[in-house]
Design a protein that fits this description.
Layout: H1 3-14, H2 19-28, H3 35-42, H4 57-70, H5 76-95, H6 100-104, H7 111-119, H8 122-142
Helix pairs in contact: 1-2, 1-8, 2-3, 2-4, 2-8, 4-5, 4-8, 5-8
């Protein structure tokens, strides 16, 4: 496992990138996408897609990376979907869900709940772990 990429993703998150941005920025250059473009592409996916609390941004960022590596060639779609489903199952094994609202037990679309989330430093406590878990699982799947 390349701990360098895992550490880079966590470091990017610690610097203020969203969960999806941290993952794609850490891996994008490997697939020809510079950091600036990675940040733009993945920006809407933080907070479970625009703070809607849907699929965790760390998960969507990782799925983007899997697409960059495996979405080419004959039968690519089936292989890619299988790997994406494997990723989701492994993430669920670690965290019981891939849904942002469930993972955080908080609705980031609700200003009052988001305020409590920020005040309690839950991004640092929870989301950092999700970024790390996503990057570690991604490392395993990128070796296939």
């Amino acid at each position: 496992m390349d701990k360098t990429k895992v550490n880079q993703a966590v470091s990017y998150f610690n610097e203020g990138m969203s969960c999806s941005q941290a993952i794609l920025a850490a891996y994008g250059q490997e697939f020809g996408i510079d950091r600036g473009l990675s940040l733009k592409i993945s920006a809407p996916f933080g907070g479970g897609m625009a703070r809607m609390g849907e699929t965790c941004g760390a998960v969507t960022g990782a799925l983007m990376v899997l697409g960059l590596k495996y979405a080419t060639g004959k039968d690519a779609k089936d292989k890619l979907f299988a790997l994406e489903n494997e990723f989701a199952e492994k993430f669920k094994e670690h965290n019981n869900s891939i849904n942002c609202r469930k993972l955080l037990n908080c609705d980031l679309a609700n200003p009052e709940e988001r305020k409590v989330f920020v005040e309690k430093g839950l991004a640092e406590k929870l989301c950092r772990k999700f970024v790390k878990d996503a990057a570690e699982i991604l490392e395993e799947l990128l070796q296939k």
